[in-house]
Amino acid sequence: MCFTRAGGLGINLATADVVIIYDSDWNPQVDLQAMDRAHRIGQKKQVRVFRFITENTVEERIVERAEMKLRLDSIVIQQGRLVDPNTSKLGKDEMLSIIRHGATHVFASKESEITDEDIDAILERGKKKTMEMKEKLANLGESSLRNFTMDTENSVYNFEGEDYREKKKVITNWIEPPKRERKANYAVDAYFREALRVSEPKAPKAPRPPKQPNVQDFQFFPPRLFELLEKEILYYRKTIGYKVPRNPDLPNSAQMQKEEQAKIDEAEPLNEEELEEKENLLSQGFTIWTKRDFNQFIKANEKWGRDDIENIAREVEGKTPEEVMEYSAVFWERCNELQDIEKIMAQIERGEARIQRRISIKKALDSKIGRYKAPFHQLRISYGTNKGKNYTEEEDRFLICMLHKLGFDKESVYDELRQCIRNSPQFRFDWFLKSRTAMELQRRCNTLITLIERENMELEEREKAEKKKRGPRTSSVSLCHSQQPLAKLKIELVSWRGIFND
């Protein structure tokens, strides 16, 4: 016995004379190869080939299509001609038709149709269908080569002159290929942020003069300039006959409309002196500062703090330290004029809080390391209940000492710490510590820093308590010591007077 995979792999079968194909392939050459293995050189027995096909399923169409391919190949080889390669391609409609084959029969059946027929009857019916297919394919000749098609001539829905396609359309809709639908991204945070955002109703935009200069709030022009620009805008609206619309969503909308319209009706054009003043004021702001420069300035203040002008100037590209210093002075003097000042100040204060935190941690590490002559060997950590089971005291000691040595405030300090651990012969076989990532080392160091800060705080409180206890006793002793030299001095003066009197 031989099957398709054995034939395809070229396995030599000594006594195989029966081929059973139970899973027909789209490519008929694969099945032929299995049959050819049984027709080997030296075969004396009659070779029998059995193909298992499930009735009213897609397997019928697969076998039919495979036989058509073989017939097409034989016609092309015999005639010595070429055929269009597009005729052998499987299109979308053809694939859908093949898959739907037999679906109507399956869904229309109410009960199981499995019957125990005689094996001879099944073989006879299979032999009959095979002969019918061969007769059908034998009619394909030279005339039908150019019009060769892989599809069947008649529809499977036509029976006795009646088309059952529309009657069974509901049943066969299940086999339609699914359509891709884009899934909506339900971001809960974004939804509630949009739903709960309360803003004042906006009125339609009023017209502005066509040639008015673009003035930004972060350029810090003199306030007088905005008054002149506002006066110019009001007069322009008066010249075009603009009427202020009423916004019913705003409270006191009628009163507000009346006041705005009165400003427009009473507006006057700028005189020559005001025009000269306007041109002069336009040159007094930070006109060369763009939005990009302003954002760099804000980020530099967040990173270095508002007082570190030298480092801030390095962060702002294209500006000299003098220009940054001048802008910084005006910024902190007039920052309340900015539109998003609350957001900007919160950003800068968060950065300054991180800077103060780094300074506090550095002081704590300096204080802890300074209490030992050889911290890499003598340093002790008061764990309390936070020791944990993963890291040993030797590992923690090395982490703290190397963190202090490398510099806690460096950006890549934990990557350097990880490299130091790998290069240290002390932890040559400590695979746990050597396999830690920079993020895991940072978490462990943060835990140790918290323990050190708590230990330093307890020591400071203890020293303060001891000073309070020692305070009065120390003052009396110092007083006694200070009185002794005075007593000696008096005695010596008296003795010298006695000598002179004598």
Radius of gyration: 48 Å
Strand order of the largest sheet: 1-2
Count of individual domains: 4
From the helix content, strand content and strand pairing, which structural class follows?
Answer: mainly alpha
User: How many E strands?
Assistant: 4
Task: Report helical residue fraction.
Answer: 55-70%
Shape assignment: flat
Write down the overall mean pLDDT: 74
What percent of residues are in strands?
under 5%
**Helix and strand pattern:** HEHEHHHHEEHHHHHHHHHHHHHH
How far is it from the N-terminal to the C-terminal residue, by CA? 149 Å
- Residue stretches low in confidence (pLDDT < 50, at least 5 long) are 474-502
Number of helices: 20
Q: Quick one: biggest sheet?
A: 2 strands, parallel
GO cellular component, one term: chromatin
Subcellular location: Nucleus
Organism: Sinocyclocheilus grahami (Dianchi golden-line fish)
Keywords: Chromatin regulator, Hydrolase, Nucleus
Which short descriptors sum up this protein?
502 residues; Arc Repressor Mutant, subunit A; two-stranded parallel sheet; mainly alpha; DNA binding; two-stranded antiparallel ribbon; N-(1-d-carboxylethyl)-l-norvaline Dehydrogenase, domain 2; 20 helices
What would your notes on this structure say?
There is one protein chain. This protein is mainly α. The protein has four domains: 144 residues, no CATH class; 89 residues, ISWI, HAND domain (N-(1-d-carboxylethyl)-l-norvaline Dehydrogenase, domain 2); 48 residues, Arc Repressor Mutant, subunit A (Orthogonal Bundle); 117 residues, Homeodomain-like (Arc Repressor Mutant, subunit A, Orthogonal Bundle), CATH 1.10.10.60. Helix content is 58%, strand content 2%. It is built from 20 helices and four strands. The strands form two sheets. The protein has a two-stranded parallel sheet. A two-stranded antiparallel sheet has the order 3-4. α2 links the parallel β1 and β2. α3 packs across α6 and α17 packs across α18. The radius of gyration is 48 Å and the shape is flat.
